[in-house]
């Protein structure tokens, strides 16, 4: 899994690519929690993720809770069908705000790397 974090108009965009599983979920958790500590809205771009397991879901839930506790938004963008299926099975599609794309949120800003 590859993680790329950028800042677009004060919105932290965390783009994931590849499979999110037990092997890489600690890195995902670390990245997302670092972003929640910055107290900025976060959108996780899941368009490049073909598979996510329970450890990856747990990392997303923990980051969501951290953002909520900080009074910031935490959104998921463009989940692939397999990822959306897992979210629906866990009924997390009712918990997370899921948007079709990052672009309208980032408002076409070129962005700066965050890490």
UniProtKB/TrEMBL annotation:
Domain STAS: 1-109
Residues spanning the signal sequence: none
Gene3D superfamilies (UniProt xref): STAS domain
Classification via Pfam families: STAS
Sample GO molecular function, one term: anti-sigma factor antagonist activity
Record family assignment: Belongs to the anti-sigma-factor antagonist family.
Official protein name in the record: Anti-sigma factor antagonist
Naturally occurring in which organism (per UniProt): Magnetospirillum fulvum MGU-K5
Lineage: Bacteria, Pseudomonadati, Pseudomonadota, Alphaproteobacteria, Rhodospirillales
């Amino acid at each position: 899994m590859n993680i790329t974090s950028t800042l677009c108009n004060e919105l932290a965009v965390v783009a994931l690519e590849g499979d999110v599983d037990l092997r890489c979920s600690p890195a995902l958790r670390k990245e997302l929690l670092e972003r929640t500590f910055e107290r900025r809205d976060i959108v996780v771009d899941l368009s490049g993720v073909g598979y996510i397991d329970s450890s990856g879901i747990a990392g997303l839930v923990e980051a969501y809770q951290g953002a909520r506790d900080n009074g910031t938004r935490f959104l998921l963008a463009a989940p692939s069908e397999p990822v959306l299926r897992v979210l629906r099975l866990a009924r997390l599609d009712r918990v997370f705000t899921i948007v079709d794309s990052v672009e309208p949120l980032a408002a076409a800003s070129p962005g700066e790397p965050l890490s």
